[in-house]
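## retry 2 of 3
previous attempt timed out at serialization; input unchanged, resubmitting
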Amino acid sequence: MIKSKKLSKFTNIKHGFFNKKGGKSKGIYKSLNCGIGSSDSKKNVKNNLNIVCKKINCSSRKLILLNQIHSNKFYFIKKNFKFNKKKLNGDALITNVKNIALGVLTADCVPILIYDKYLKIISIIHAGWKGAYMDIIKKVIKFLISNGSNSRDLIAIIGPSISQKNYEIQKDFKEKFLKKDKKNKIFFKFIKNKTYFSLNKYIYSQLKELGVNKLELINKDTFDPKNNFFSARRSIHDKENDYGRNISIIMIK
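## retry succeeded, writing output
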């Protein structure tokens, strides 16, 4: 489990970015696969989620995960949230309620944790290129500001994700981003007739533009096997038919 230096200073916040280590799953899912949507045994995934909850010291019944759809949709979780309801479709969660753990699953996409120490409000975002392109980060920050946050007080942690050198993209992908804003060309590199994109730097820049200056970028490449994260791109490269998911969690206690 990787922890943020900035968030570790706050005793009322529990958080962590988990990699593959320390779970019950076997084979290509070895071992801490938290992806309910994967083809792994549901029992193993449930056991893995229980292991994660124990580390964060939260009740597994109070862990909220989304059915992630690469969107700009988010939810504000209130005190009367019904935990037995169907899973929510979206890519970000916000709450000011204690002992509710917010989680996202990733396998190269970017997990983002946000905390306002004055309003005691937290958020977690799953940002793939689609969500980032569709301004999920902007929507979450604007919601926080409309509810009393000052962007200068927000602490945002950009978690482990695929690095630029392993994120090859097609020409139309780059054109899409340049059409949105010509300044986006700084997030692309052209090496030996191939184009590569820096997703985490793009997200970092978005947060900066929104006035969030208390930033931490955890530069761990999920594609690199030595970092021991699940990676969708690596599984395709290795011709595996599925892949596990890494979990990231934040909770106010």
